[in-house]
Structure formats: C-alpha cells, structure tokens
C-alpha cells in the first residue's frame, strides 16, 4: 500500500520562501506576514473612510448650528426691536 505523504525532508509546513533580502523563511510565516500586511492595509483604508465620513458629518453639524444660530439671532433682534417700541 502506497502512502502519498511528503517525505520528512519535504513537509508542507517546511517549505521555504525567499524574502526580498534573499533570506529563506518558512512559507507559513511568509503567508502570515502577507495576511497581516493585508489586514493593516484594509484597516488603514477603513480608517480613512471613517475619517472622511466624520469630517462630512462634522461639516453638516457645523452648517446646521450656524443656521440655527442665525435664526436665534434674528428672533432675538426682532424681540429686541419689539421691546424698544413698547
């Protein structure tokens, strides 16, 4: 009966990859580093989107507050004019 297992010198977990500097590292470590780098890139992109949304929300709140303040100011001026006439 033939077993299709890798030899002890060539196990799946023992495969090596080359780094840009020419050093050999196990493939599993290389895949883990690639995965972590990808997660960090996605997190940065997500953070940028959240930051843009927050800026847009802040701008809307600022515009509403300015409009509300303008209305309050107009009412206060109108009330002040009415009081001066009475």
What does the model show?
The protein is mainly alpha-helical and about 90 residues long. It has a domain of about 30 residues. Helices cover about 70% and strands about 5% of the residues. It is built from one helix and two strands, in the order ββα. A hairpin with a 5-residue loop joins β1 and β2. The longest helix is centred in the middle third of the chain and has 59 residues. About 10% of the residues have low confidence.
Structure summarized in a few sentences:
The chain is mainly alpha-helical.
Draw up the topology in text.
Elements: E1 16-18, E2 24-26, H1 27-85
Antiparallel strand pairs: 1-2
* Helix/strand order, N-terminal first: EEH
Q: What overall form do the CA principal axes indicate?
A: rod-shaped
How many E-type strands? 2
Strand count, sense and closure of the main sheet? 2 strands, antiparallel
Give the key terms.
2 strands; two-stranded antiparallel ribbon; about 90 residues; mainly alpha
């Amino acid at each position: 009966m033939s077993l299709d297992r890798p030899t002890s010198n060539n196990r799946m977990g023992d495969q090596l990859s080359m780094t840009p500097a020419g050093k050999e590292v196990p493939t599993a470590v290389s895949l883990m580093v690639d995965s972590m780098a990808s997660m960090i890139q996605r997190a940065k992109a997500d953070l940028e989107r959240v930051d843009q949304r927050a800026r847009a929300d802040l701008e809307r709140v600022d515009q509403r507050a300015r409009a509300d303040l303008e209305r309050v100011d107009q009412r206060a001026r109108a009330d002040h004019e009415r009081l001066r006439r009475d």
